[in-house]
Design brief:
The structure is a homodimer of 728-residue chains. Chain A has a 7-stranded mixed sheet with strand order 3-5-1-13-10-11-12, with helices on both faces. In chain A, strands 7, 8, 9, 14, 15 and 16 form a 6-stranded mixed sheet that branches. Chain A has a 4-stranded mixed sheet with strand order 17-25-26-27. The two termini of chain A are 52 Å apart. The longest helix of chain A is centred in the C-terminal third of the chain and has 28 residues, at 500-527. The first copy, chain A, has 4 domains: 36-123, Aldehyde Oxidoreductase, domain 3 (Alpha-Beta Complex), CATH 3.90.1170; 185-261, Aldehyde Oxidoreductase, domain 4, CATH 3.30.365.10; 276-432 and 579-727, Aldehyde oxidase/xanthine dehydrogenase, molybdopterin binding domain (Aldehyde Oxidoreductase, domain 4); 434-574, 2-Layer Sandwich (Aldehyde Oxidoreductase, domain 4). Chain A has 728 residues and is of the alpha+beta class. In chain A, 61% of the residues are buried. Chain A contains 21 helices and 27 strands. In chain A, 29% of the residues lie in helices and 24% in strands. In chain A, a hairpin with a 2-residue loop joins strand 21 and strand 22 (540-543). In chain A, helix 7 packs across helix 8 (244-254), helix 16 (460-472) packs parallel to helix 17 (500-527) and helix 19 packs across helix 20 (695-707). Chains A and B meet through helix 1, strand 18 and strand 24 of A and helix 1, strand 18 and strand 24 of B.
Chain lengths: 728, 728
């Protein structure tokens, strides 16, 4: 591995101080002259027809300017309606927007929303997988409530089970979990009456997707929509376009800027949480722990809209272990709930909860080392996935080695003797390579100005500064990273899939190298020296070893404002190898259990993860610890609950349980291993998503280790644990 | 000359409709949350010491938040104070800012300003060149009131005058003229408490200069200052940094966004108008009209600060005609008036007024064709200038030919017989070549997104779109030009010197060609064809002559979001040849004269100008006509007048005479000639400044033609003309 000066050193996040002190401005801080404040009027029913809407009282209130309904916007919808606009005639989930009140203040808009009279005729709702799949169930949409995709298969599943010495089989259930960013969704939209386009300020992970969705709804070229991404107060996969098209349409209809900042209650009722999932899985193994067969049926409740998540879930179930015979189906089930979205490592906590429980059970049954069984069956470089792609080199063995050596693992039987259980789980998260784009210029203060088109959800800007600094030969403090808006940056992908550091990072390095070459060319002319003899040292260029005649980088920049030098403009445009860079994350959970209440308490959580090359280890550890805490939420606390009538029972943070500081493990340990990826610049792998994946499975396996019971439903609440203990 | 599809066609300005309908947002339309409104408290004296400032009453007013004075800001000034901050102890011009009132509304700020009690001790002021240069004159600054620079010389002036058959000699005076943009100076500054830097929204011709001046005052790296240029409601050389550093400092001191939009009265009192100039010039010629000697002393009253304008004036006097013996001095004189700045073709109207009057007088004396005398003596390619540079190829002969053929010129004696005078003047404006920068990307709607770092004062964005469209092979409507802010674009020059289309345009063409090459490479792979066989037709790429399999450009853009294609990112970085691209502008004025009142009325103004290659002829003609109207202002109407005590007598548009619609020539004719420049991409020359230059001289020569009197003071008001006629 190359030796680095900055990469691999702990660095504070560039925007950390601004975030901590409150100096950072978010989208909610933006006020344009003449702005109208929007408030959603949401359906109180999960399924109903809209009989009548009477705006009279609401419009008479002071400050209320306009009220839009589905009927109002229908003639303006260019392409097709969807559930994220305003309901037309019918609502299919509680919280669905039925009207939009626009007023001179947020309070007036709320008043208007409270005074709008809407008559509904309630219809029977289906709220669960079973209800939705029952014969004669009310249909969520006319094409039917469930649809099973093409199975993920390998080998011959019959043959596989025939070869097995043991077959274990269970049904797992995981609930709807919300991303729960500290900042809710928010946007401000300024219409442009000339082009018919708009400018959108949005807290988004995907400015270019906001641009295309808004343009599509408005029926204008995407070039007439400018999206200015604002700093994110949390993303976690939830900050993709939801209400931007609606607010853009409203702004254009009223000809004024419109601002919508969701309340916490709206956020919980009507955004895009993780889907509820049921997995029935059956795993067959030989006596020595070799897995030979896996069949699974996954049912993914994506609420009132279909989604890409079911097929992704099936693919993940089939491709975690090198099992010769696999047959996995995934069924997309619709219910009268809000449409699902992506949540950090979508569906993967469920997948690993199912697979790793069964595997753990097999190891226990044959009294094999659970770690060795996992390692033996883990995917390896060159293994063929069900989509025909091949698994690339991973750091699995390094992760297993670190887990095996850890005292928590080594002393697990001693711990058990003291009333503490120790569980393990391991996951692969497949990170894809994509094209990347970056630009950089040089300022007259000698600082490198780096422009990228991807949002920063996880501290990537700081990593980019370090990568550019390393390449260019300056300090990371002398790099300014700017996230461009869609009109001043080139087309870029979204900040998602743990891909940003890997892919945009490659372009950053290319741009910095290009800028450096341009600087060296100028210096070579100034010094009348060969370009190979020029170096950048202490913020200056010099002929190697001749610091006396050094020229400051800022002075080089000044020279580019006059003849005969062109401005410094480094460019990074990288292609993808098309191959993946798998990230392996393994976790150990040490727990104790109150047999009288069923309460599980996690004492230690050890997170081992392969970062490929950790650009900013402090930030990698931050992502790992944060992911682990969210994983504890999945394991023990979090769920969006609805009653049979479709009413959300957990519509505030008073009701929705997230782990607070005393509920997370008192000790979270993060161990980075570094096995450089084969197909990535510097060997970088992704970081953000993997650490949330194995936690629930590790905690469940710890409960099994201690108490001998297998929990199959998340969250593992005291009552569920207690009941399992009783049933034992 | 190459044949173009778009270049050379008349195109509407891209932002024209938005400007006309009022949809365009200017800096005054920007309101940030928590903004404090600023109002300057200006000195009522031209020269005084500040004895005492009492803030009590002003601070007690509702809405007034803070009042800053020179004493308050002194400890925070990092580098050096200047007259554009707040006066410390002393004021040296009327209108100088003595305090800044910050309040919750503009009205409250004005109230505060009205209630601030400031005691001054008035000092004697020098208001004129003569007063300033008198012995024992009060000093404007301690280094003395006048300073004469190194003369511009050629040959031996004694020898020159000895060879002359005639010597003419006159003293010319031109007043302070204001740029008078429709939009006054304005800015909003948001402080960043973390970095100590700021974000500045400013109506500026020079965002990168605002950045460096603000950074210097604040003592932060320029990379910590982000300047977002707002659309300009007029520039004319006046929109360079004045109050941005002060407002940035104030915003940082109070920790809130601060907004200052100058009132018209503040704009007239305390910005940066053209300097008053006196030129004493003496010209010697042979009988055949050959010029042999020119001596001149120019006195430039730059108000209370020294400037680069005097030496520029001297250089221009020396380098308009190929005179073998030249001796020109320029003296910078300080007075107790606001510091001068650049005004469209700085000082050049005065230079041509002087030179072209004397030349006209020589031609008349020997009864020579005034046009032929000009043409004979005009600078030609290869002539050496007083700074050692050489004059490049110009379109002078084409301009003279167009003037000679024009009916207004051909029928001048018939016109005179009917009581109408016809005058001519011709000027060269030297346009420099500079490095340029541009970027372009491709959007999924097939539109080219072009980013430049220079402000648009004169419609250059539309020209850029045409240049990019021509190069790339699409329609100008499918190019979106975005002016980047200083944080998302590379270091660029200012929008000034008529250089923008020439220099940034070269980079635009390079960037579009680069992007096209990238698109063709992708298409070649998609079609499995040679890159030479690919063409862009109707917004699609296709194998030459095979439209059936065409791929839309937008689809190519979409492909770059996935493997194996890199994003389209065309880059333009151009160097300068170091040579100039002189622009020649000649004008004919036909006038009539009321001998009883002295009133001059311009009947026709013919403007002939070499554009090199006119990218957008409609825009070039617009610049030419607009320049001519401003030239009529110089000739007949405009002046900032002060009384002896330093009080501005023309502090509003009620008092300051600008030509209104009935006062401009009833017929303004614009004739573009095109002699491509040797050292410029496409042959483009500058356009914006030259048309203001010759107008005053042409009108004066028309008065001489008709009435035989030589006017030597601008503006040629009725009383001056009447007195000249009486003195005859």
């Amino acid at each position: 591995m190359a030796t680095f000066k900055h990469i691999g050193q702990d660095n504070r996040l560039a925007d950390g101080q601004a975030k901590i002190t409150g100096a950072l401005r978010f989208v909610a801080d933006l006020h344009l002259r003449g702005t109208l404040h929007a408030r959603l009027v949401q359906s109180p029913y999960a399924h109903a027809t809209i009989q009548q809407i009477d705006k009279t009282a609401a419009l008479a209130l002071p400050g209320v300017v306009a009220i839009l309904t589905g009927a109002d916007i229908k003639p303006h919808i260019h392409d097709k309606s969807d559930l994220r606009l305003l309901a037309i005639e019918k609502v299919t989930f509680m919280g669905q927007a039925v009207a939009l009140v626009l007023a001179e203040s947020e309070a007036a808009a709320q008043d208007g929303a409270d005074h709008l009279i809407i008559e509904y005729a309630e219809l029977p709702a289906v709220m669960t997988l079973d209800a939705a799949m029952a014969e004669d169930a009310p249909l969520v949409n006319e094409k039917g409530n469930s649809r099973t995709g093409k199975p993920d298969t390998r080998g011959d599943i019959q043959v596989g089970f025939a070869e097995a010495d043991i077959i274990v089989e269970r049904t797992f259930e995981t609930p709807i979990v919300h991303q729960n960013s500290l900042e809710t969704h928010g946007m401000v939209v300024q219409p442009d009456p000339i082009s018919g386009g708009v400018t959108v300020w949005s807290a988004t992970q995907a400015p270019f997707d906001v641009r295309s969705e808004v343009a599509e709804l408005l029926g204008v070229p995407e070039s007439d929509v400018r999206v200015i991404p604002t700093p994110l107060g949390g993303g976690f996969g939830g900050k993709f376009p939801i209400y931007e098209p609606l607010i853009a349409l409203a702004a254009r209809m009223v000809g004024a800027p419109v601002r919508l900042i969701l309340s916490r209650s709206e956020e919980l009722q009507a955004t895009n949480p993780a889907p509820a999932i049921r997995v029935h899985a059956k795993m067959g193994a030989k006596k020595d722990g070799t897995l030979v067969a896996l069949s699974a049926e996954a049912y993914i409740d994506t609420g009132a809209s279909r989604s890409w998540l079911p097929s992704f879930t099936g693919w993940q179930l089939a491709n975690q272990y090198r099992i010769p015979h696999v047959h996995v189906t995934a069924t997309n089930v619709l219910t009268h709930k809000p449409p699902s979205g992506s949540y950090r490592a979508p569906c993967s906590p469920t997948v690993i909860f199912a697979l790793d429980t069964l595997l753990d059970e097999i190891a226990t049954h044959f009294d094999l080392d659970p770690l060795a069984v996992r390692q033996k069956n883990f995917m390896r470089e060159g293994d063929v996935l069900t989509d025909g792609e091949r698994y690339s080199l991973s750091g699995a063995d390094a992760v297993f080695a670190a887990l095996a050596q850890h005292p928590v693992w080594q002393q697990r039987e001693a711990s058990k003797a003291h009333g503490r259980g120790v569980g393990m789980a391991v996951a692969t998260w497949m990170v894809g390579t994509q094209p990347g784009m970056a630009n950089c210029g040089l300022n007259r203060d000698g600082k490198l100005q780096l422009n990228v088109g991807v949002a920063d959800v996880s501290g990537v800007s700081t990593a980019f500064a370090m990568m550019a600094a390393e390449t260019f030969g300056i300090s990371p403090d002398d790099v300014r990273v700017v996230i461009t808006d869609t009109a001043s940056g080139a087309l870029s992908g979204m900040a998602a899939g743990s891909m940003t550091t890997l892919n945009t990072g490659a372009a950053v390095i290319q741009a910095a190298a290009d800028a450096k070459q341009q600087v060296l060319e100028i210096a070579a002319r100034e010094f009348e020296a060969a370009i190979e003899d020029i170096e950048i040292v202490n913020g200056s260029v010099q002929v190697r070893g001749v610091p006396d005649k050094a020229i400051a980088l800022g002075e080089i920049a000044s020279k580019t404002l006059g003849s005969p030098y062109a401005p410094i403009l480094g460019r990074g445009r990288t292609v993808s190898s098309g191959e993946n860079a798998p990230v392996v994350c393994g976790q150990l959970a040490e727990i104790e259990l109150d047999a009288e209440t069923g309460a599980v308490r996690v004492l230690q959580l050890v997170i081992v993860q392969d970062a490929g090359v950790a650009i900013n280890p402090a930030s990698v550890r931050g992502q790992m610890a944060g992911g682990g805490v969210q994983g504890l939420g999945w394991a023990l606390y979090e769920q969006l609950l609805y009653d049979d009538g479709g009413q959300l029972l957990t519509g505030s943070w008073m009701d929705y349980a997230m782990p607070h500081s005393t509920q997370t493990a008192p000790h979270i340990e993060t161990i980075i291993v570094e096995v450089p990826a084969a197909n990535s610049t510097l060997g970088v792998r992704g970081v953000g998503e993997p650490p949330v994946i194995p936690t629930a499975a590790a905690v469940a396996n710890a409960v099994a280790h201690l108490a001998g019971v297998r929990l199959t439903e998340l969250p593992m609440t005291p009552v569920r644990v207690y009941q399992a203990l009783q049933a034992q």
